[in-house]
Amino acid sequence: MPIVRIEMWEGKSVEQKRELVEVYTREMSRITGNKPESIYVVIEEVKKENWGVAGMLCSDKFPDKK
Which residues are catalytic? Predict the structure, then answer.
């Protein structure tokens, strides 16, 4: 039972998440030989203010474009 974990900033659409799950499942199955039914994909969305890089909060380093 492979589990693919995706951590990303929040804000992607349901359509984008649906495509991620489809593509990761298909490619994991192709590469590993596991049946798609046995592959789990978990998407965890994180607020930019809870993610840091290079000593800065991502909400400060990458502010949303208005």
Answer: 2
**What average pLDDT does the chain have?**
96
Give the span between the Cα atoms of 2 and 65, in whole angstroms: 36
Residue 10: its H or E element: none
Q: Which CATH number is correct for 3-61, 3.30.429.10, 3.90.400.10, 1.10.510.10, 3.90.600.10?
A: 3.30.429.10
Yes or no: say if 24 and 6 are a contact pair by the CB < 8 Å rule. yes
**Integer Cα distance of 31 and 8 in angstroms:** 23
Q: pTM score > 0.70 for this model? A: yes
